[in-house]
Amino acid sequence: MSAPAPSPLAIVDAEPLPRQEEVLTEPALAFVAELHRRFTPRRDELLARRAERRAEIARTSSLDFLPETAAIRADDSWRVAPCPPALQDRRVEITGPTDRKMTINALNSGARVWLADFEDASAPTWENVVLGQVNLSDAYTRNIDFTDERSGKSYALKDADELATVVMRPRGWHLNERHLQVDGVPVPGALVDFGLYFFHNAQRLLDLGKGPYFYLPKTESHLEARLWNDVFVFAQDYIGIPQGTVRATVLIETITAAYEMEEILYELRDHASGLNAGRWDYLFSIVKNFRDGGAKFVLPDRNAVTMTAPFMRAYTELLVRTCHKRGAHAIGGMAAFIPSRRDAEVNKVAFEKVRADKDREAGDGFDGSWVAHPDLVPIAMESFDKVLGDRPNQKDRLREDVHVEAADLIAIDSLEARPTYPGLINAVQVGIRYIEAWLRGLGAVAIFNLMEDAATAEISRSQIWQWINAGVEFENGEHATPELARKVAAEELANIRAEIGEEAFAAGHWQQAHDLLLEVSLDEDYADFLTLPAYEQLKG
Ligand SMILES: CC(=O)SCCNC(=O)CCNC(=O)[C@H](O)C(C)(C)COP(=O)(O)OP(=O)(O)OC[C@H]1O[C@@H](n2cnc3c(N)ncnc32)[C@H](O)[C@@H]1OP(=O)(O)O
Ligand SMILES: O=CC(=O)O
């Protein structure tokens, strides 16, 4: 008797979208279903391991390099695969969501790379998930030019040799895509985003002289990197392209991954092209993991933690050293200051702050860095041009002077700043405003002239949780308590209502955002990710 046919992947509870049939083709869905069958069980095991490790951190309040992988770190002989030409020069990378306008603007921005984001800059509505894929395919076939009906402005791609190389960021391992299910089980969003993109574009990209390149977010261990590597090996065979075609840049943006940088590169060595210092999620991860570690681990206001804090320098310098030792690119992170074309003073501050950040990164040995806005591309370019000149990167700068001990990465108490009452107000303001936008399908927004996305919002809500649980006393004598957070949130909601007016208030999701922020900031049972309960409430 022949084996029963595998269950197909079903589209569940989703309104049909224009042109979805171009992305959700039968062969593409069969590929995603196969990824799910092969790899979701291991994904589930690895999520359970995350919980075990966090329980261990709660018990010990410490982390260390892994004894069982010491041989990988000690072996000086291995390197990651040679870098493909399209990724040699990554001196400036722009990030952003994949709606049609942003896709064209990012590709045309003058940056060498565009991080096309299905993760923190994108709220995972079904429309964003599917139409983001349509837009990327349209960009590769040069079928994307359009006129914005509201502004009347026309958008067209520049010549191919002027466009940024795309590095696509799928969702992290923890999020499911409820609209695609096998036997009633939702497929991990990571496999949906990766699978659809890879299936439709891998060969097309090779024909264009590029390749299927990925940023891997929120990795917590080298075992998770191994899972991605196995996904790549399977996917390359499945569509018949050579092994080693995929390239992945791993975001080192969890505190546990910072202790496994070498191991992560090792697991992915046939597919790795670099590591990125994702500072915002990194801070979130520190607060999350050490949230109940007592006063020693209490971070001050988010905006008071800069990249020059000793524990942040330990992290970034170790990242550069590790990458260059193994032949990989070291890519810097995101300064959150957003320029304004309408306000010269805001613009000036953003340019100054971003220039200082990029100068520091270029000086420290990074091979490139991120910006959030096209107007910041020339600023970052100047910083890296000064250091790199005609060289595509500075991987030859080995930074052997860098020595980081395990304790340096979590020496939070070396900071003098303390949490402040205005810091609490800001965390509440940003939390409500960001969650409201997310529930409308926007994953990245400018709030108070700073870029906010899922990672920065995670810091805000986690700090409220941590400060309350650590019984922080602010400079004005107030204590962080659930009652105080509720009072500040109620005031903020009233302020927003007065600011935007009744009609706009009623049209938005403000009360819902307020309630959700309080839930994820005050619940004793801390939610691992804000986007998990938020996804339950996301329409579409
Ligand atoms: C922690 C992390 O994970 S960081 C990575 C994730 N976060 C991101 O990627 C954020 C990316 N940045 C953004 O999304 C945007 O810059 C925002 C939301 C912060 C601000 O956007 P806006 O309010 O539209 O900015 P602004 O009005 O100044 O934009 C001016 C123009 O630049 C374009 N633009 C702004 N940012 C980007 C971008 N990142 N990519 C492409 N185009 C952009 C706008 O579309 C607009 O184009 P138009 O003149 O044709 O209409
Ligand atoms: O994803 C990047 C970060 O800073 O977080």
UniProtKB/TrEMBL annotation:
Give an example GO molecular function: malate synthase activity
Could you tell me the Gene Ontology terms of the biological process aspect for this record?
A: glyoxylate cycle; tricarboxylic acid cycle
Active site residues per record: R169, D453
User: What reaction does this catalyse?
Assistant: glyoxylate + acetyl-CoA + H2O = (S)-malate + CoA + H(+)
Cellular component per GO? cytoplasm
Under SUPFAM superfamilies, the record lists: Malate synthase G
- Domain Malate synthase C-terminal span(s) in chain numbering: 420-538
Q: Which ranges carry the Malate synthase N-terminal domain?
A: 18-70
Q: For the Malate synthase TIM barrel domain, which residue ranges apply?
A: 165-412
Which PROSITE patterns does UniProt cross-reference here?
MALATE_SYNTHASE
This protein's record includes keyword Transferase? yes
Q: Does the keyword Ribosomal protein apply?
A: no
Q: What InterPro entries does the annotation carry?
A: Malate_synth_C_sf, Malate_synth_sf, Malate_synthA, Malate_synthase_CS, Malate_synthase_TIM, MS_C, MS_N, MS_N_TIM-barrel_dom
Q: Which domain of life is it from?
A: Bacteria
Q: In which pathway does it act?
A: Carbohydrate metabolism; glyoxylate cycle; (S)-malate from isocitrate: step 2/2
Query: Which UniProt keywords are listed?
Result: Acyltransferase, Glyoxylate bypass, Transferase, Tricarboxylic acid cycle
Q: What is its EC number?
A: 2.3.3.9
Give the protein family: Belongs to the malate synthase family.
NCBIfam families, A to Z: malate_syn_A (TIGR01344)
* Protein name per its UniProtKB record: Malate synthase
Q: Which organism is it from?
A: Streptomyces chartreusis
Q: What is the lineage of its organism?
A: Bacteria, Bacillati, Actinomycetota, Actinomycetes, Kitasatosporales
